[in-house]
Amino acid sequence: MSRLWDKGAPLDERVLRYTAGEDHALDNRLVEYDVRASIAHAEMLNAQGFLPAADLEAIRRGLSEIAAEHAAGKWQVSLEHEDGQTALESLLTERIGEAGKRVHLGRSRNDQVLTALRLYLRDAVDELKQRVEGAVQALDELAAREGDVALPGYTHMQQAMPSSVKLWAGGFAAELRDDAEGLQQVHRRLQKSPLGSAAGYGSPNLSIDREATAKKLAFASVQQPVTSVQLSRGKAEAQLLFEISMVMQDVARLASDLMLFYTQEFSFVALPDAFTTGSSIMPQKRNPDVFELIRGRSASAQACLLEVMGIVAKLPSGYQRDLQLIKVPLFRGIDLCLDTLGILPSALAGVTFRKDRIRLDPSIHAAAEANELVVKEGISFREAYRRIGDKLRKT
């Protein structure tokens, strides 16, 4: 298959396999977005007088059919294609002839793939936010079911102050709501259209309308100047992975609490059999595997963030092939967060607190008693603190 960049010289197949890497497979999730951007670009070329109406109609029809066939599983981007952009242009040209070669005027694979990626990430952010809200709802429902159950509040792993299931679940719900707001903020960078920046320096002597394609694709603005586009690569991606890391950190701490509460020593909660597994050697055991893996995958999310930041760090300006490597940790981070948030609400729905097993040490009310003395006798808190401490030491 001819490459879009082919100059006629033979290529060692090892080079193709090494440089394409996983990129061709990863591009399968971008096909529908690449098609949308390509149609918008073709419509702009037509409006600017660079593409006849008949060619535009053939391109629009051909790309729509190719996208529908991809969605139906009739074809996939393969190593032979090298990447999704080559696959689409090659398939389009096979289907409609010379008109398929006209669509690439005024753009490069660089701005083409980045446009598709940002369109995809906009949807991914919205889906992640929706799933975070699903976890919040599960916590709210848990608080509504068992909120009145008293719990010890811990500091330094010691019972410190009285708490409740409502306070405990409400704290995690509040932080996840904050995470949802953080995800929403990623849109600021994703709403800048890179389309038409081509290889990073625009298209000299060609009058294209970047505002038109930005509007058609619902971008808030055109990214200017064109040289800023490649410098922005990795920023929205890292910001999204940072927010994913925050989500995963919060649910990991939630999971850690539940696993502690599930131990025989605590025995504060019961977990549903449907969300625990058995032991291959110990008949009595049920293992909280789901929550263990939620805890562990917070480290995977952080690793994805660090990998993206490490790839971009110290790159010179302009496009560099290293940027292709961002897709692997980016997509992995998105997928592991979606998977985690997909299972968490159902797991939480089966959590019950064992009120009869929860014991609060009497000393847990010491701070409240000190506050009461301050109010009752008008003494300083430090004096009240001393008196309550003395009383506890004597008991």
TrEMBL record:
Pfam families: Lyase_1. InterPro entries: Argininosuccinate_lyase, Fumarase/histidase_N, Fumarate_lyase_CS, Fumarate_lyase_fam, Fumarate_lyase_N, L-Aspartase-like. Residues 23-299 form the Fumarate lyase N-terminal domain. CDD domains: Argininosuccinate_lyase. Coiled coil: none annotated. The keyword Amino-acid biosynthesis applies. The keyword Amino-acid biosynthesis applies. Gene3D superfamilies: Fumarase/aspartase (C-terminal domain) (1.10.40.30), Fumarase/aspartase (Central domain) (1.20.200.10), Fumarase/aspartase (N-terminal domain) (1.10.275.10). One of its GO terms (biological process) is L-arginine biosynthetic process via ornithine. Keywords: Amino-acid biosynthesis, Arginine biosynthesis, Lyase. Pathway: Amino-acid biosynthesis; L-arginine biosynthesis; L-arginine from L-ornithine and carbamoyl phosphate: step 3/3. It catalyses: 2-(N(omega)-L-arginino)succinate = fumarate + L-arginine. It is an enzyme of class 4 (lyase). GO terms for cellular component: cytosol. SUPFAM superfamilies: L-aspartase-like. Its EC number is 4.3.2.1. GO terms for molecular function: argininosuccinate lyase activity. In the N-terminal section; belongs to the lyase 1 family. Argininosuccinate lyase subfamily. This is Argininosuccinate lyase. The gene is argH.
